Amino acid sequence: MNRTGKVVLSITAFALVLEFILLKELPFFWDGISKAYRADWIYTHHFSSLIVPTEFNSGHPPLWITLIALFWTLFGKTVWAARLLLLLINLGTFYQLFLLCKKSFVPGVSLLFFLLVAIDPTLIAQTTILNNDMLLLFFVLLGLNSLLIHKWGWYTLAIIGLLLTNLRGIYCVISFGAIHFLWVRYAELAYDRKMLRAYFTGSVVFIGFLFVQYSELGWILISKNENYAAHREIVGFARVAKNAAAYVKNLLDFGRVFLWIPFGIILVSIFKNKNRQLSRSSKRIFIALTVFTLVFFFGFVPFNNPMGPRYLMICFILACILFINLLFGSHIKESLRKGLVALIVLAFITGHFWIYPAIISQGWDSSLAYLNYFSEEKKMLTYISEENIPIDEIGTHLPLNSKHMATIGATEKFDPPFAVPDLNTNRYFLFSNVENRTKDDGIKILRTEWKEIVTYSRMGVFLTLYENPEKID
Q1: Is the pTM of this model over 0.90?
Q2: How confident is the model at residue 108 (pLDDT cuts 50, 70, 90)?
Q3: Claim to verify: residue 109 and residue 208 sit in the same structural domain
Q4: Domains of the chain: total
């Protein structure tokens, strides 16, 4: 490894460790809260089973929650222990990303451009979220790197890891199968029969997990928990169209539109010019990007499960790598090249400040904007307590009644809990743009017919407490 590579890795490792130090007590957030509940069940039941009960089981395999429970056992049941696990995964993920860039960059591209790939807003945000997406991404990158150098043992580990981390791992394995076939078909990778062992071994392990889950719960894949079962229902044409639009939005969101537009223009110009061809490494990345994008599209869009930008992180990474290769492999003026790179860096940084009106759903776990939420939540809870407002009369879609679980070591346990959100019965309603469950008509009613009591906001993130004027004493 040359000096530049060592410098890049050192900078990355330092940034990740610093992030851990600064955010070591940051609570679980969004989908991470449900993972905390499941990890807590495994922890409190002393690993007697890794299959959590149906009442809060969404069907996903238990690798991530088991690792959290294991770190709690080793280091104590604290947030920082879970974040230590995330730090180790982050370090492994960015090392695998570095290896992929090193293998894929065309001659003339400095390894410093790894940093451009690494600052994607959603990727950065996920390094701070206690969810399983970074673990999933680690196995995806490990799989790509292992496939490129014919390491069937590591490739097997990647396949198994994908299938035991999240059900989206199934789509990733399907993608790997297609990528593997196409790389060999178009002579971008030599055929190695040993690599096929990974698919067989991974399938056997995953079937074993499904057998154990069925024997304990009586179902697999599609949860019998009503809160999650609806996510895997096939939707009608209108919802498919809406999901397709959301899919495209996720690709372009948080500043990435400024990458995809020039990327698309350069790529089309290359395909139109018969005298210009992609390098071998660029062809591999192009095939992988196309496969992942299409498999995810047809895997997510027809179903009811809400999509988030974090689902597509590997697409963002591959697109950025390929874009960098095209910049240096095409006859582009140096001034234009530098201008495009500067524009994308600026777009990625400012992407963390992209906040939409409350009526537009936003992937709050896909940029660092969500970090502004916690201080305002604390202010709101303090206000509610000081004003002696009964929390069982406050409806909200926010997981405030789970705050004790989200922060693990905290002493606040809201008893009784906040009320079930219902604008027809709630006296008070606590609304924030950091939740996508309050419908548009409900937001309109709150803003036009209810009384605003207090609002706390910071850099576009807000919480507002409303009171129903019809229920005021």
Answers
A1: yes
A2: confident
A3: yes
A4: 2
